Amino acid sequence: MSIKCILAPMSGTASDKIVARAALAIAKRFASEIQTVYARDSMALVAGTLMGDERDETTERFFELLRDNDEAAEAEVRETFQEMLKVLDREGVGQPTALFDVTEDSITQAIIERGGAYDLLIVALPGTGTADHAKSREIAEAALFNTGRQVLLVPDVAASALGEKVMICWNKSQQAGRAVAQAMPFLEAASRVSIFYVETGAKRGPTPGRLKHYLGLHDIKAEVLDEAPDYRSVGEQILDRAHGWEADLLVMGAYSRSRLRERLLGGVTSYIFSNADLPVLMTR
After folding, report:
1. Rounded to 5°, angle at Cα 243 from 160 and 208
2. How far apart are CA 131 and CA 140, in angstroms?
3. Sheet with 280-283: strands ordered across
4. Whole-angstrom Cα distance, residue 24 to residue 228?
5. What's the Cα-to-Cα distance from 147 to each of 19, 30, 70, 86, rounded to whole Å?
6. Domains in the chain, ordered, with CATH?
7. Rounded to an integer, what distance in angstroms lies between the CA atom of residue 234 and that of residue 170?
8. How do residues 117-162 score in pLDDT, each as one tens digit?
9. Facing residues of 125 across strands?
10. Which of 102, 136, 146, 210 has its CA 20 to 30 A from that of 17?
11. Is 81 helix (H, G, I), strand (E, B) or coil?
12. 96 cis-preceded (ω within 30 degrees of 0)
């Protein structure tokens, strides 16, 4: 089991370079193919549809400005992709390499229609301070809740390593179990693995000890990091222990409070979205 095919959606925002950097790191580790998709999502086209034929000199100048912005965003994405190719060629990663595609669909629609055919999707963490927070969150939620695949959320912080010290955030749930199963390539490649667990009594399922035994059968040695509930939220406890243990990757399930409205994320998921400063591998 390995990571052979990565989808790296690009949206013409500052987070594209963050995603590209992480995709290169994973591709070099697993000899993966990177497929990037850019959704034009043209503002000029949207504005033109809304305005119809009611145009004058002022609106034409406005449309020209929007078209210039669209073209600049696409040029930036293509430059980012070319930089990826140069790195792959310079460092001799070998085949498969990187592919580039452009779609007229929205970025969320592109993710929904393509994401299920990849081993891994890489997107930016919404809480990284990127210029377009709303778009980053929209992309992350589309990847998590509509593809059935594992999603690597990366922060706007350059890391010296990714996946050397992996901390599993365990809460006995089906989502956590699914996250561990899909993360096996990362767990098998890691130099150290830990299982972080806060006993809240909220869920029934395998204990951390049973998970440790399961991983051991796959030749993955893991240590259990038990922690009692305290005044902090579970999300705070996760990030505090991750920093103390010097983890460079978290593995966890993603949760929503409402099946009808997936934007209402569960408390822990929402906290990690907004506050994590290290890569997070999530599965819904």
Report:
1. 110
2. 15
3. 98-103, 33-39, 5-10, 120-124, 150-154, 280-283, 249-253, 165-170, 192-198, 222-227
4. 38
5. 18, 21, 27, 30
6. 5-154 (3.40.50.620), 165-283 (3.40.50.620)
7. 11
8. 999 999 999 864 455 677 888 889 899 989 999 999 999 876 678 9
9. none
10. 146
11. helix
12. yes
- For the record, the structure tokens of 72 come out as 């600049």
d(CA 235, CA 237): 5
How far is 214 from 278, CA to CA, in rounded Å?
26
On the question of pLDDT at 264 being above 70, the answer is no
Pairing of strands 192-198, 222-227: parallel
Query: Are 199 and 273 contacting, i.e. CB atoms less than 8 angstroms apart?
Result: no
Residue (of 107, 181, 174) closest to 141 by Cα position: 107
Q: Using alpha carbons only, what angle is made at residue 280 by residues 145 and 243, rounded to the nearest 5 degrees?
A: 150
Residue with tokens 């989502």: 175
Q: How far is CA 153 from the centre of its chain?
A: 3
**DSSP letter at 14?**
T
Note the pLDDT tens digit of each residue in 169-180. 999 999 999 999
Nearest to 27 by CA among 79, 94, 77: 94
Q: Which residues contact 140 (CB under 8 A, 6 or more apart)?
A: 123, 124, 125, 126, 151, 153, 273
CB 29 within 8 A of CB 97: no
Burial of 14 (0-12, 13-18, 19+ CB in 10 A): middle
pLDDT tens by residue, 32-55: 999 999 987 655 455 554 555 565
What would the pLDDT profile of 3-22 be if each residue is shown by its tens digit? 999 999 988 888 888 899 99
Which of 27, 267, 17, 173 shows the shortest CA–CA distance to 7?
A: 27
Cβ proximity of 274 and 141 under 8 Å = no
User: So what's the pLDDT on residue 132?
Assistant: 66
Whether residue 132 contacts residue 36, with contact meaning beta carbons closer than 8 Å, is answered with no
